[in-house]
Amino acid sequence: MRRIVVAVAVVLAFAVLFSISPALSSLLKINLLQLLGPAQELGNAAFAPLAYVVGSIGRTIEAARVNPVLEEQAGFLAAEVSRLKEVEAENRQLRSLLDLPDRLRYRGVVARVIGRDIRHWNQSVLINRGGADGVEREAAVVSSRGLVGKVIEVAPRLSRVLLIIDPASGVGGAIQSSRQTGIVEGTAAGGCLMKYLPRRIEISPGEAVVTSGLGGVYPPGLLIGMIAAVRPKQEGIYQNADLEPAVRFDRLEWVMVLQ
Questions:
Q1: Which of 63, 210, 222, 250 sits a CA distance of 20 to 30 A from 105?
Q2: Which domain holds residue 2?
Q3: How many domains does the chain have?
Q4: Are residues 92 and 132 in the same domain?
């Protein structure tokens, strides 16, 4: 209470001082200021905590007003960054697909995967291109990574593609290094198995398997996958090998239907 009284007295003194006639000598004003100096410091000390509190309240109110705006702007920016990343990823996939005709010497129609068979999630997909786009039944389908499968159903603007990992699928394959041929079939586990390989040949994990061109559906030289493991030799003249497909079917978004 005492500090508040002193502060009020200081304010009144300064009011009186500066209302005095201009004729009052500057020396008197200086002396009065020197005399009231300690009281001024005391008044400043009394009002400093109050000024700090008032300033803090003002800053808090301003922050509360601005923060929701900043949060909303940050949300918009995060969404835009995510969208641009998706566009970049899509452009990379499309560029890779558009380069395929030059690498494979085949023409094709680019299509987006728009659905999967709910009865066999990994075995077939729907694409957004059909007969009106030049897609034909039994046409080979590829991605930028390798062989996807073949078209089994065609509508004007829609087609179904049987994936090479379907147990009903059969692809003529060849081990790239030895040119030994066999049949690549899908498995219930979502992989591939190369069958009818002669027991007499040596097969090593990591060897590439490509389409052989036998059968007339798939052109030769398309990458199917890599040898993952050789199954123990059994009775008979053949052995089998597990393949790791080149295509990540769980991430398949864009394909090309060869023509």
A1: 250
A2: 1-105
A3: 2
A4: no
- Separation of alpha carbons 162 and 123, rounded Å: 6
Shared-domain flag, residues 32 and 131: no
121 and 237 together in one domain: yes
Tell me which residue has tokens 């023509």.
259
The rounded distance, in Å, linking the Cα atoms of 174 and 197 is 10
Both 71 and 93 in one domain: the answer is yes
**Pairwise CA distance, residues 20 & 113, whole Å:** 90
Contacts of 111-116 spanning 24+ positions with Cβ under 8 A: 111/135, 111/159, 111/254, 111/255, 111/256, 111/257, 112/253, 112/254, 113/252, 113/253, 113/254, 113/255
**Rounded to two decimals, what is the model's pTM?**
0.63
Q: State residue 12 phi and psi, 5-degree precision.
A: -65, -40
pLDDT exceeds cutoff 50 at 66 = yes
